[in-house]
């Protein structure tokens, strides 16, 4: 059993408290932290949390609990200072994505975790779904031979779907695309070497910053990813993980994941299309701890068993996904000029 505290009980943090934490039996909550008394009162009133477990500061929680894991579910700009303080206090940390706003901050936290002998994990929840898990295994097994091209489409219409963060900087690349960028690295088992990206803000958009973009990303093994995504697309809605077509020398793997829309959940789907063969639907294995429960369960397993599972999104690993965000933003600022990943990662 892993004893944990949660820091950040706002809109998304409350969702963790209500919908995620109770579903992972190996985690025992011994503290909830938020500087806003209304947020603390909400978990007490709506979730029945003991007021004695609620604290107004991290230091107060650290002094009154014996937790070994800190679950950081705050706004992005608070990730770096809070995670840093958690590591300094000796906690293992699970933090929401993106875990920092700069590569320099990310590297500092990774080095601090290593120096403290603590586990730092980023909650890349899209990895914990049936289709990307199956796709990653198929690619690792060489299904259909060497990959040539991967096409990914993400389509949502924010104004008609309850989107709220109209003033968020880089609402596509930093907040949404990081999921897709992380899945690229996870599924391909490869790292990007360079990319080109353009973004724009369509006429009539309520977004302050660009909600639409396209990118071409080259990976080290020769695979080229064509990525198209938008928060202002009036076409058919895609699942949250997007629609993927992975073209190999001997056939195609097509899949989609996290088909959640208007509180309705559809299953992950995958089909295989051999060259000159018949399309076949794949029966996907059920994931015991899907999505965010998967990230929380994964770090609990590491802390109790000491074995790091395949696809574990450590802070070190996640620097590659954060770098894709930074590189696409940089390329877009240069009107689509090619950016080498080395320029961003240093």
TrEMBL record:
Lineage: superkingdom: Bacteria
GO molecular function: nucleotide binding; oxidoreductase activity
Domain Gfo/Idh/MocA-like oxidoreductase N-terminal: 7-123
Keyword Oxidoreductase: yes
Presence of keyword Lyase: no
Entry-linked InterPro entries: Gfo/Idh/MocA-like_OxRdtase_N (IPR000683), Gfo/Idh/MocA_oxidoreduct (IPR051317), GFO_IDH_MocA-like_dom (IPR055170), NAD(P)-bd_dom_sf (IPR036291)
Domain GFO/IDH/MocA-like oxidoreductase: residue ranges: 134-241
Keywords associated with the record: Oxidoreductase
Coiled-coil region list: none
Similarity annotation: Belongs to the Gfo/Idh/MocA family.
Protein name, entry field: Gfo/Idh/MocA family oxidoreductase
Organism: Devosia ureilytica
